[in-house]
Amino acid sequence: MMQGIGAGLAICVGVALLARKFSFPAIPCYILAGLIAGRSGLSIVLPDPGTELLTRLGLLFLLFSMGLALTPARIRSSGSVFAGSGAIDLAVNLPLGIGASLLLGFGFAEALLLGSALYITSSAMALASLIENRRLALRESETVVWLMIFEDLVLVVIIAILATSGGGAAITLALMAGVIAAFFIACHILKKPLQRLLSRDDDLPLVFTFAVVPVAAVIADILAIPETLTAIGAGAALAMTQPRDLERLAKPFRDVFIVVFFFFFGAGIELAAGLPLAAVAILAAVAVGSKLISGLLIGTAIHRSPSAGLEIWSHTTARGEFSIALAAISGSAMVSGTVAPVVIVTAFAGAVLGKNAAAIRRRFAARNVP
Amino acid sequence: MQFRSVDLPSIGTKYELETETRDTLAIIYQQSGAIQVYITPAEGGEGCSASLKDVEARRLGNILTGAIMEAEPEGIEIAFSALEDLRISVHTYIVGNSAVGCCIGDLQIRKKTGATVVAVSRKGRNTINPGPGFVFEEGDALVVIGEAEQLKEFEQVVLGR
Q: Rounded CA gap, A96 and A119, in Å?
């Protein structure tokens, strides 16, 4: 049972070292390494029950951490930029993604899933791009950060919609709303004791943080609602107590499990189940192009400059963890086999764009000067 | 002077300062503890940036506030009215490469120079009267006491100037 985890993580350490050396994002490299070592490649490292557990925890910790950032106070403070840029981003990218998927012959349910996966930018790679390429002084970087939060909120809605696609939609929806509300009420009532617990200087805060995620999954299991949603809900509700401490405590778990998640997502994929290469290339081109359109529109609407839009585009092109998460939640081999190569292509494209953001803007400005 | 601070979720906090000359300074305190500083001139010319560790940021802050830990170390001379021929100097130094990792005893500071390290400030924590086993780290700010001659000796022997 340990073979898969050991071999996979050992490969990932090597891959991450290489990626850092060339300052490339690590996420697509993990997936690529998984593809090469796994079912579609050499078949030397394959998913087993041990890796499946860690993979599941990786996904849940990713979403739990995302939930921690979704504090209502933060969102209120962001104002109109948040809603405006988020709405443009959603209105451009989701329909284009769904449309392209439909044209390539996917059924509606799969097209919705694929469109959502194409819509959602990798927050991890967008933020890393802003930090590593030293773009944080720009106002555009603030827009990008808020855009990521908006997309996270949309992801919650998408997960809820996916869960209700079966029968008994109204009951499932009510249950999900009820559970999230219960989390918030519980955290509101227990705010003081929770804060005391998280401020202790022994090992209890760490144990507590870890325990939250499996417990949220158990609650989901009992009520037959998605554990991904209860993980986000638990994060968002707990963010009312000590969000900074929780983010710090959850980080090591997330960082380790998520690597296992990416690698074995790649390892479990059968590329043959996805689209032919030409179709994948079309989808990747749509993914890069649609973010260019939305970026230009957001730049013009919020920053009164298309050049600002190029900046936003440069950092939001990479698709990553959330696209993979959606593919994993769907469990569809066809969607996973399609999303994985699109993520790899857009992530590499995004890395190149992010590094050259300043040069792209200069060239654009030079062309527009008569 | 215009000042503005924004919360950047998952990144940290950004502080933005516009100077009278309309240059812009942005400082980002990352959650990871690293700090980025950006300077954008009012017009023309590319902006520039720097990435700082917390020790470096503190030193920069001290330089800007003009506090005791200046990069150009400062000193004072104390003279007592009752003891006319006793003149003691107190001087601050920042530990450089040559003394990093050495302890006070190994360097034989008092024996070789006659000066005494009376306090060390490290990352905002002060150690008063450090013992012979105290090991210097990069960026430690030292308060050294002695006669002017002894302090010169200290600079040469310990700091290698």
A: 9
Angle among Cα B65, B66, B67 to the nearest 5 degrees reads 90
CA A201: distance to chain centroid?
A: 32
Residue A247 pLDDT > 80, yes or no? Answer: yes
Q: What is the pLDDT of residue A370?
A: 55
Distance of CA A7 to the CA centre of its chain: 25
Q: What is the dihedral of CA A144, A145, A150, A153, to 10 degrees?
A: 140
DSSP category for residue B103: B
Q: For all residues of chain A together, what is the average pLDDT?
A: 90
Q: Report the distance separating Cα A272 and Cα A163, nearest Å.
A: 27
Put simply, the answer to whether A131 touches B49 (Cβ < 8 Å) is no
Classified as helix, coil or strand, A41 is coil
Q: What is the pLDDT of residues B97-148, one digit of tens each?
A: 777 888 888 888 888 888 999 999 888 788 899 988 888 888 888 889 988 8
Of B6, B9, B31, the CB nearest to A149: B9
3-state SS class at A44: coil
Q: Contact A70/A239 with Cβ under 8 angstroms?
A: yes
Residue B15 contacts A where some CB pair is shorter than 8 Å: no
Q: Does B112 touch chain A (CB under 8 A)?
A: no
Q: How far is CA A344 from CA A102, A229, A323, B35, B83, in A?
A: 22, 26, 11, 30, 78
Residues 6+ apart with CB under 8 A from A356: A314
Q: Phi-psi region for residue A242, left (φ > 0), alpha (ψ -120 to 50) or beta?
A: beta
Q: Which helix (H) or strand (E) holds A61?
A: helix A49-69
Which pair of structure tokens corresponds to residue A289?
């192009």
Residue B74 carries which DSSP code?
-
Q: Are A27 and A122 in contact (CB under 8 A)?
A: yes
User: What are the structure tokens assigned to A67, written together?
Assistant: 């939930």
Strand partners, B88: B78
Smallest Cβ–Cβ distance between A145 and the set B9, B26, B40 belongs to B9
Rounded to 10 deg, the angle between the A243-268 and A49-69 helix axes is 140
pTM to 2 decimal places: 0.78
Q: How far is CA B96 from the centre of its chain?
A: 11
Which of B8, B47, B51 is the closest to A142 by Cβ? B8
Instruction: Decide if A68 contacts A243 (C-beta within 8 A).
Output: yes
Tokens at B5, concatenated: 């601070």
Q: Is the pLDDT of residue B85 over 80?
A: no
Vertex A140 angle, CA A134 and A143, to 5°: 120
Q: Which residue has the tokens 């998520």?
A: A258
- Residues 301-320, chain A, touching B (beta carbon < 8 A): none
